[in-house]
Design a protein that fits this description.
- By secondary structure, the chain is α+β, with helices and mostly antiparallel strands.
- The chain folds into two domains: about 70 residues, no CATH class; about 60 residues, OB fold (Dihydrolipoamide Acetyltransferase, E2P).
- About 45% of the residues lie in helices and about 20% in strands.
- It is rod-shaped.
- The relative contact order is 0.11.
């Protein structure tokens, strides 16, 4: 079997693993195998093929690391998935510590004011912290 076919099979297997695992780094290994496949088509020695593959893999991993760090900075706020935000609850009684028990979604929740203390009345849910509702007017 020719060198370029072996490199092509290796690249496709790594690409298949990438699709199942979802890491960015295996793309660099697949690109390295494709670069070695191309160098094998040009008739370069096996040592040159491995060297080219290694260089492309190292460059690919460095680029993937750079993009991964930049993507972390661009991640949206974690509160965007908060489906409870803006929902209305009724506070009918307030405890001595400033908290209240409110019924929301068929269960009893402990609620706290976003700033200040709670009073009886209608509030909107600002956020959920664990099992606590943080309310605002």
């Amino acid at each position: 079997m020719s060198d370029y076919l072996i490199w092509l099979i290796v690249a496709l297997v790594i690409l298949g693993c990438e699709m199942m695992l979802g890491t960015i780094y295996l793309l660099a290994f697949s690109a390295g195998a494709i670069a070695a496949c191309i160098s094998a088509l040009f008739g370069l020695s096996l040592t040159s093929q491995f060297t080219i593959a290694a260089i492309v893999i190292v460059l690919g991993v460095v680029i993937a690391l750079y993009f991964r760090r930049n993507l972390r900075k661009l991640t949206p706020n974690t509160q965007c998935d908060n489906l409870d935000k803006g929902q209305i609850v009724n506070v009918s009684s307030v405890n001595d510590d400033g908290s209240a028990k409110v019924n929301y979604r068929g269960t009893s929740w402990t609620a706290y004011a976003d700033n200040g203390s709670l009073e009886c009345g209608v509030y909107k849910i600002d956020r959920v912290e664990g099992t606590r509702l943080i309310l605002k007017k």
